[in-house]
Amino acid sequence: MDLNEVWWIEAETANKATIPLYLKNLLMMTEFDNLPSLEGLDTQQVEMMESFAQTEMENLIDPENPLTDYYGIYGKYSKNFKILPGHRILLKELRDYCRKLKNVKLLTNKTIERKTLNVNQVERDFGKEEKHILKLLKDYINRLTEKDEYKTIFKASVVNNIKELKAPVTLKEPGKDLCSKFKSIFCSSVIKISKVQGRWYISNYTIHLRDQQLKAKKKLTKIKLKCRKLALKV
């Protein structure tokens, strides 16, 4: 990663110091203006940078640019160029700053990986929970339809709707109990059930079914009464 102006501003802010122009240009001319190179900067490489500035750099600088932009106070004495003691410390601070950035990036990547793994695990666990809920709900419907009196109430078309039943699982709150909301197979009502202390409570579902039974019974009774009245008239 090459270092742009925004990076330099962030580095100066983090280190609470202004990085002199000649130092930035020296890093650029010696190809140290990138994170990998700055991370590995040591005393020997700093001395190599100084040697390059003393012997070669002046010949590579555009004549229109002032030498002070590249040599600082040694603008008129490039052969004697040295990085000032305080700026040597600043280079070490920059090196350490780059290393911290790398560590933060590695930690961030690991955190993202852990979060991804956790999300995948939760999704797998939720998938198991949904299968368990669907089994509970379907088993309850099947038990009801096995009784003769309900075979006429719960028509085959309603029973077939069980196949379309879905019960997605979510967290009530992070780290809290689970819940599931799903649409009734009889009407547009949305039913909510919860898992508390390791157990799913489906009473809301069973109560809803009983209500549907009563409605169906009343409707069936009206039909039977109407048929009897018609039969008596005949």
Total domain modules: 2
Tally the helices: 9
Largest sheet: 4 strands, antiparallel
The general outline is rod-shaped
Helix residue percentage = 55-70%
C-alpha end-to-end distance: 95 Å
* Helix-strand makeup class: alpha+beta
Strand order of the largest sheet: 1-2-3-4
What is the number of strand segments? 4
Q: Name the beta content range.
A: 5-15%
Gyration radius (Cα, Å) is 38 Å
Helix/strand order: HHHHHHHHEEEEH
Uncertain residue ranges: 106-112
Mean pLDDT: 76
Name some characteristics of this structure.
rod-shaped; 8% strand; single chain
Short synopsis of the structure:
The protein is of the alpha+beta class and 234 residues long.
Characterise this structure.
The chain is of the alpha+beta class. It folds into two domains: 5-83, no CATH class; 147-233, no CATH class. The chain is 63% helix and 8% strand. It is built from nine helices and four strands. A four-stranded antiparallel sheet has the order 1-2-3-4. The longest helix is centred in the middle third of the chain and has 61 residues, at 85-145. 12% of the residues are buried.
